[in-house]
Specification:
The protein is mostly helical and about 280 residues long. The protein has 8 helices and 3 strands. One of its GO terms (molecular function) is zinc ion transmembrane transporter activity.
């Protein structure tokens, strides 16, 4: 991806996140208020999720703005790490907030409260529509771990809103009040599963782990096939963010007959991994 395309994608993501954050903040306030009015833990939980979504969308927006900042002599990779950092924080919130809701759900099972299913159904339906609109807005952006973590927040709220509508109807027609805490418990577990996935992925980037889809062993094998006398001392593969991957390769060459070894290694590694040759560093001794 060239710099112009990257700038265009970042700018588009920024505009989409601004719209998404604005819609989410407005409805989060409405949903928390009506959740308390209706007595529904599902609606309260959805409101809390949407409040956290607004915070996560603002965080994603900040990360997108910061990631577009130019490289400086003190920040030779620029500010692109902001995106995996934001994704990591968002992932953690998708784990911590549902844990609180699970605690509340257990309390509701022990001590049930009165629920107004009509208000619950209306707010849940509006929440479902708002989340669908926000999800559609975000789906138009350039996919990266930062945008995916924001989308996962919105998808989690869509599940909660849909569950709230279904449970409200069950309470309204069949008096199944016990479904409210059970529904909150189940949706929380689903959300935690997604949160763990995005947290692990972003943590791997922050720890400079080998990005998914890349194999150090395969790189070693391809280099070794160039010449049997080569000794591969070290191969490192890491990403500054999800999109920008680098590799550092150190080899020993006991013979002077191997000409242009650095360029040959770059070519074969770039061809096999799709890492741009300018992101491949080769040290031949």
């Amino acid at each position: 991806m060239n710099s112009n395309e990257e700038y265009t994608n970042k700018n588009r993501n920024k505009q989409l996140l601004m719209w998404a954050a604005g819609l989410t903040i407005i409805f989060a306030v409405i949903e928390v208020v009506y959740g308390y009015i209706s007595g529904s833990l599902m609606i309260i939980g959805d409101g809390i999720h949407m409040a956290s979504d607004s915070a996560s969308l603002i965080l994603s927006l900040i990360a997108t703005i910061m990631a577009a900042k130019a490289i400086t002599k003190n920040r030779t990779f620029g500010y692109k790490r902001f995106e995996p950092i934001a994704a990591f924080i968002n992932g953690l919130s998708l784990i911590i907030i549902p844990l609180y809701l699970i605690y509340e759900a257990v309390n509701r099972m022990i001590t049930p409260v009165e629920i107004r299913p009509a208000e619950m159904a209306v707010v849940g339906m509006i929440g479902l529509i708002i989340n669908a609109v926000v999800g559609f807005i975000l789906s138009k952006g350039n996919s990266n771990i930062n945008m995916r973590s924001a989308l996962l927040h919105v998808f989690a709220d869509m599940i909660t809103s849909l569950s709230a509508v279904v449970i409200a109807l069950a309470i309204m027609f069949f008096d199944m009040v016990w479904l409210d805490p059970i529904g909150s418990l189940v949706t929380s577990l689903i959300i935690i599963h997604g949160g763990i996935k995005i947290t692990k992925e972003s943590f791997n980037i922050l720890m400079e782990g080998t990005p998914e889809g890349y194999s150090v062993d395969c790189i070693r094998k391809n280099i070794q096939n160039l010449h049997h006398e080569l000794t591969i001392k070290d191969v490192k593969v890491w990403g500054v963010n999800e999109e920008e991957v680098y590799t550092l390769i150190r080899v020993n060459s006991p013979t002077n007959s191997i000409k242009n070894m650095q360029e040959r290694i770059k070519d074969i590694v770039s061809h096999s991994t799709k890492i741009p040759s300018e992101n491949i560093y080769v040290d031949v001794n």
